[in-house]
Amino acid sequence: MSVPTLAADQSVCAPLPVLGRDVSVPLVTGGTVTYAALDYAASAPALQRVWDDVAAYAPYYGSVHRGAGYLSQLSTDLFENARKTVAAFLDCREEDQVVFTRSTTDSLNLLAAALPADCQVFVFETEHHASLLPWRDARVTVLDAPRTPQQAVGTLERALADRDPHGPALVCVTGASNVTGELWPVRELAEAAHAHGARVVLDAAQLAPHHPVSVRDLGVDWVAFSGHKLYAPFGSGVLAGRADWLRAAEPYLAGGGASRRVTRRTDGGVDVDWHESAARHEAGSPNVIGAYSIASACKSLTEAGFDTLVAREQYLVRRVREGLAGIPEVKVLSLFGDDAPRVGVLSFVVEGWNSSHFAAALSAEYGIGVRDGLFCAHPLVRTLLGGDPGTQGECGAPEAAPGERSLNAIRVSFGAGTPDEHVERFVRAVGELVRDGARWTYRTEDGRCVPAV
Questions:
Q1: Across residues 201-206, what is the average pLDDT?
Q2: Which residues are tagged catalytic?
Q3: DSSP states of 368-435 as a string?
Q4: Which residue has the higher pLDDT, 138 or 6?
Q5: What is the Cα–Cα distance from 136 to 138, expressed in whole angstroms?
Q6: Lowest mean pLDDT among 49-63, 187-201, 329-343, 375-389
Q7: Separation of alpha carbons 428 and 316, rounded Å
Q8: Keywords, A to Z (predicted)?
Q9: Distance of alpha carbon 240 from alpha carbon 275, whole angstroms
């Protein structure tokens, strides 16, 4: 996956309009400032166009697949057209299915429930918990964190060569790390997997909002992502890809919509004929607004042009990296090295600072929202920080008081809606905090570092 680049002083387009871009927040030092949302990797703000599209549809809201009335038929058409829009956005194959879910986590748990008997799963310890943990009923091989893309491919090839060649196998891999933002060699990993008779599911939660994703070009069997990272509201997600395992599996949820025909038996039980389409795993009244919002986001990003969006984001990435590189006390975390291509996600630690304390100061004194903790990727963060990957810890919770070292990190993330000023303010704030220290006193309350009052 190539990444377009810009000159260091050139920005090619304005940020896309997003909700919350004019929200003001109070500072502990007095006054207010426009909030700098730099936590896109957790949840990106909804695009204004997505919100406008949903608002325009809301008066026509109706029951999907359930009614003969005009609004029901309109909503059904909108829901099914959203499926086609997502398939086009992902460049799916003709025979692929698009299943609407609640999130990436839900999508991967759905696939886990559909695995054939005795399936073996291969996953790197570097994965987000959404793709590391769902495979509880399978034989799981967790692979060590690689230090180069080539090592990732070689590690997978050796592990697959040692497996039972006759049983089903699945490789789960991220497209872009939610901790380091680094792009993974997805196409090469997929080729290695297929050469050994294994299938591949791509966790594209951090990739799809920042970079075009083509199921055909990457050669993956499935792709999963979340709407709330793709500039759509919470509560919607996608699992798209091959239909055979999904058709053969029991429905993810049993209920109306998944069933095509239900009949009583003479013994008092019921016989069920389940759908073989995506509806098989979409029981209940579907989240039509969620599906529509994802489709609207897909259209918005496609029409804005990924070449332009990626190029502008790389300008912001370069500005952050150059700014942090000029502060000796800051260490940016990386698996593949400083020159590795990445999306707008960077994690770092600051010498002499507890990460939660630093993040709290950025928020309270500068109006900048970042994330601190282990980012639901505990083994990876522990490895990057030189700790034991098996050490226990809590997502987002500090383990030390302000000023004390902790095995947590700080993450800054941004995307299509980020103004240049937010990035400039962030770089300036990091430098000032390191040089001058916090201007306020902080304490730990309910596991969080907060300003003392």
A1: 98
A2: 376
A3: EE-EEE-TT-HHHHHHHTTS-TT----TT--SS-TTS--S-EEEEE--TT--HHHHHHHHHHHHHHHH
A4: 138
A5: 6
A6: 375-389
A7: 14
A8: Aminotransferase, Pyridoxal phosphate, Transferase
A9: 17
Residue with tokens 């086009």: 88
Q: Are 102 and 235 spatial neighbours (Cβ–Cβ below 8 Å)?
A: yes
> What residues contact 264, with CB distance under 8 A and at least 6 apart?
270, 271
Which pLDDT score, from 0 to 100, does residue 326 have?
96
Alpha-carbon torsion angle 21, 22, 28, 29, nearest 10: 110
User: So what's the architecture of 49-302 in CATH?
Assistant: 3-Layer(aba) Sandwich (3.40)
> Span 69-94, mean pLDDT?
96
Average pLDDT of every residue of the chain: 92
Radius of gyration of the chain (CA): 23
- Spell out the CATH class of 24-45+305-451: alpha beta
- Residue 286: exposed, middle, or buried by beta-carbon count in 10 A (0-12, 13-18, 19+)? buried
- What pLDDT sits at residue 296? 98
Token representation of residue 225? 């992502």
Measured CA to CA, the distance from residue 320 to residue 13 in angstroms comes to 18
SS (H, E, C) 22-80: CCEEECCCCCEEECEECECCCCCCCEHHHHHHHHHHHHHCCCCCCCCCHHHHHHHHHHH
- Collapsing DSSP to helix, strand or coil, 332 comes out as strand
- Token pair for 179: 């901790």
What gap in Å lies between CA 313 and CA 423, rounded to an integer? 11
| Full DSSP string of 197-252 | T-EEEEE-TTTTTTS---HHHHT-SEEEEEGGGTTS-SS-EEEEE-SHHHHHSPPS
Tell me the domain boundaries of the chain.
Answer: 24-45+305-451, 49-302
CB distance 276 to 300 below 8 Å: no
Strand partners, 176: 183
What gap in Å lies between CA 247 and CA 240, rounded to an integer?
13
Residues 4/313, Cβ–Cβ less than 8 Å: no
Tokens, residue 361:
């100061």
Single pTM value for the model: 0.93
- Is 388 a residue whose pLDDT tops 70? no
And the tokens for 189? 């990993």
What distance in Å separates the CA atoms of residue 335 and residue 437, rounded to the nearest whole number?
Answer: 29
Strand-pair partners of 120: 139, 169
Domains 24-45+305-451 and 49-302 share a fold: no
Phi, psi of 83 (to 5 degrees): -60, -40
